[in-house]
Specification:
The protein has two helices and 29 strands. It is mainly beta and 398 residues long. It has three domains: 36 residues, no CATH class; 217 residues, Galactose-binding domain-like (Jelly Rolls); 107 residues, no CATH class. Strands 21, 22, 23, 24, 25, 26, 27, 28 and 29 form a nine-stranded antiparallel β-sheet that branches. Strands 7-8-11-16-13-14-18 form a seven-stranded antiparallel β-sheet. Strands 9-10-20-12-15 form a five-stranded antiparallel β-sheet. A hairpin with a 2-residue loop joins β7 and β8. The longest helix has 9 residues. The radius of gyration is 24 Å and the shape is globular. The N terminus is likely disordered.
């Protein structure tokens, strides 16, 4: 019977699964008369751990669904950058998509749209969606050794232009690459792909520590600098695509590509894409990026909710009371993060709001670590009471 790789349970309607596109082979079912519930009976396949961060595309702390500019290689959602290098006039935009623009049964995907098609694709140009893994997270792959393990990438993809596209796998240094094709056979239709990647027994791989150990790139188009004649083999080069590939997405105004839920796992066969709770996945994302704003509130919003406050007032003696300036992180960061303060009043970066004097003042980070940080600022004018307020972002993304 089919193997589900989407959310559970599945509804059995008129004898068929309501989401027949989300199935793969080798799974057993337990039927209760209404729902078809997956049940891991002897011989069935249990889900492997998903190495990808935010694989269901639901968490977007920095942008909260707003469009981003791929020309800056910025993070469009947590864990995923979209990069565009076009020297021939290409302009694009990327952002988290809602359920209506995502695969059936899923709430989010990541979309790229060509706002202005490039006149050509010179040698060094490219467009890609990519995600990076910490070296510690690929320790069990054994890459670079004789015990290198196979990997499998599963993902949903949608494109307004049918054709053959490429996925690139590479080490942190970009000195080893594996390029493999997949074909979107029908335009503007979601398709599920599963790609097996042999372990790399050669090259230099960093398998421990908090630096980049592995990168996965979905290539939307690229010039000859990053193309190869040979696919489906590990090579000592920084590659994104293959010779003769179509670059129609880069050159076609209003062309679009969407990446849906995805999974990278150790093993030569795909296993179910099981979604963690929102809070569990948020905690994983907060290892790399955390903000004081509530979920759903964009960075730079004027709000007091969640702000960090430094308050001090003279009591009956020369004693300061009520001092608070520490930022304790919910999750230890990958490395000491870059802290950016934001005025709670205007949203201006690098600023703290002086409530007593109703003015933004410059804020400073006085210490930072992986578990906590601190900030300070001077009031706009002398006063017997100090009331300074700021929001913050801690960024340790790869």
């Amino acid at each position: 019977m089919p193997l589900p790789i989407g959310p559970f349970p599945y509804q059995l309607i008129n004898g068929t699964l309501a989401d027949a596109n989300q199935v793969m082979a080798d799974f057993n079912w337990l039927l209760n008369g209404v729902n078809s519930l997956p049940w891991p009976l002897p011989g069935s396949q249990i889900a492997n751990y998903n190495k990808l961060l935010n694989p269901f595309m639901e968490i977007d702390q920095a942008n909260e669904g707003a469009a981003t500019n791929p020309a800056t290689n910025s993070f469009s959602i947590d864990g995923y950058r979209v990069g565009l290098n076009s020297t021939a006039g290409g302009v694009g935009a990327a952002q988290r998509q809602a359920a209506a623009a995502s695969p059936l049964g899923y709430q989010n995907s990541l979309g790229y749209t060509t706002a202005t098609g490039a006149s050509s694709v010179p040698a060094g140009d490219y467009a890609q969606i990519f995600t990076r893994l910490e070296a510690d997270d690929i320790n069990d792959t054994g890459f670079g050794t004789s015990n290198a393990q196979a990997l499998t990438l599963s993902f949903y993809a949608y494109c307004t232009i049918a054709g053959t596209y490429y996925v690139s796998f590479s080490n942190g240094a970009g000195t080893r690459s594996y390029i493999t094709p997949y074909t979107i056979s029908t335009a503007s239709t979601w398709q599920l792909f599963s790609i097996a990647i042999p372990g790399d027994t050669a090259g230099t791989w960093t398998l421990s520590g908090n630096t980049t150990g592995f990168q996965v790139s979905w290539t939307l188009g690229t010039g000859t600098t990053y193309q190869t004649v040979t696919t489906n083999t590990w090579q000592s080069a920084n590659l994104l695509g293959a010779t003769g590939m179509s670059n129609a997405i880069l050159t076609t105004t209003n062309a679009g590509f969407r990446l849906g839920p995805c999974k990278l796992e150790v093993g030569s066969a795909a296993t179910p894409m099981l979604r963690q709770s929102f809070q569990q996945e948020l905690a994983r994302c907060q290892r790399y990026y955390e903000k004081s704003y509530d979920a759903g509130t964009a960075v730079g919003t004027s709000t007091v909710t969640g702000q960090s406050q430094f308050f001090a007032g003279l009591s009956t003696g020369p004693t300061w009371a009520g001092i608070s300036r520490d930022i304790p992180f919910k999750t230890n960061k990958r490395a000491a993060p870059t802290i950016t303060l934001y005025s709670r009043n205007t949203g201006a970066p690098g600023k703290v709001f002086d409530l007593i004097n109703a003015a933004d003042v410059a804020g400073s980070i006085i210490q930072q670590g992986t578990s906590t940080s601190s900030w300070t600022a001077n009031p706009a004018a002398g006063s017997s009471t100090v009331n300074l307020n700021a929001h913050w972002v801690a960024d340790a993304r790869l």
